[in-house]
């Protein structure tokens, strides 16, 4: 650890030691609220990108993840169909346009 890192670490320890229990609790609550807001914001992005979801239906995480996974699976199948169609017409498909993800794991 460099001298600068050591100084920063000591300052952090000193700041932590100076915080009262109420300040620590307030900081923890604020951090947790920020974490939850980040998760909520990311789920909002997923809802906006998934056609089978809308902002007025059930917003449970399970519903969002299930419909998003179904949509991704449909995109993979459409990609496979289009690649096969191109091959059938002797059209070369660049590898960057072919889905090469983790594989056909079935979660049924």
From TrEMBL:
Basic and acidic residues biased stretches: 18-37
Domain BHLH span(s) in chain numbering: 23-75
Localisation per UniProt entry: Nucleus
Pfam family, one: bHLH_INO4
Domain of life: Eukaryota
CC per GO annotation: nucleus
PROSITE patterns to which the protein is assigned, alphabetical: BHLH
Region (Disordered): 1-37
Key words of the record: DNA-binding, Nucleus, Transcription, Transcription regulation
GO molecular function: DNA-binding transcription factor activity, RNA polymerase II-specific; protein dimerization activity; RNA polymerase II cis-regulatory region sequence-specific DNA binding
Keyword hit for Coiled coil: no
Protein name from the UniProt record: Piso0_000338 protein
